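Case study.
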Amino acid sequence: VDLIDTKQGMRKWRQRVLGNVALVPTMGDFHEGHFSLVRAAREAADTVVVSLFVNPTQFGPHEDYTRYPRDLDRDAALARAEGVDCLFAPAAAEMYPTDHETYVYWPRLGSLLCGMTRPTHFRGVATVVLKLFNIVRPHQATFGRKDGQQVILIQRMVEDLDLPVEVMICPTVRDPDGLAVSSRNRYLSMSDRSQAVGLYFALSAAKHAIERGERRSDRLKEIMEQTVAAYSALSVEYVEIVARGTLEATDSIDEDTMIAVAVGVGSTRLIDNLWVVQGKKGLQVEL
Ligand code: PAF
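After joint prediction, the assembly is written out as follows.
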């Protein structure tokens, strides 16, 4: 794996590459979720670039920017083992010189769901993803469905700004008990970790209800809230049933529905979601 830490170095490297390039944007601390994105990128393209950048502009003032896990040597070794061609790991001052001023954002979509408690988060995501697209110039970029609102917003940016990038959405990777893998799971104490799985059980309960024919959003919300209530360490931030196109709440589910949940466990915030899609025999749930 080639390790590059400047924008100019990345541009030069990119110029020499022939064929399709897929980008896997990450904040490092690689886990199975990242590896699944790398494998999808590898299937789609000849060359795989992984960016590793803990993006300061997507963290709020009291969030975990400084304590977010960072271990470049470990991540570089893992990237090498996964057959990544290039690891682009710039420092914050390289990506954001002191005179940086331009931001892109979604005034409506970015203020809903996670945007309610993280008002500047998606503006930071949009800005850094657009910068990464411009520096790496990928044909494809892979994102995990676990960050459901994020992938929906990035798809919208690609459409609205006519970006020549194909967004690939990869399934959520889960621990054996069902908890979605995330770097933030590291923050959980042992007892909080055992409670965190309640987030997955809430979505599983909704999945089973949908598979039994339930279509009403209020019933599904009730089922999820009842499930979460059995886990005393979980405090619900939101349980929302929305249309993926607009992120507006809907009364009943259809093939465009996302059910998104955010909870607090101790001082850690966890999110997860399921998508309802059209299957061969009617509605199908991707969890
Ligand atoms: O999902 C993430 O890890 C980040 O939000 C991303 C897309 C790498 C942008 O910093």
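Observations recorded in class. The chain has ten helices and ten strands. Residues 70 and 154 are 25 Å apart (CA to CA). We will return to this complex in the next lecture.
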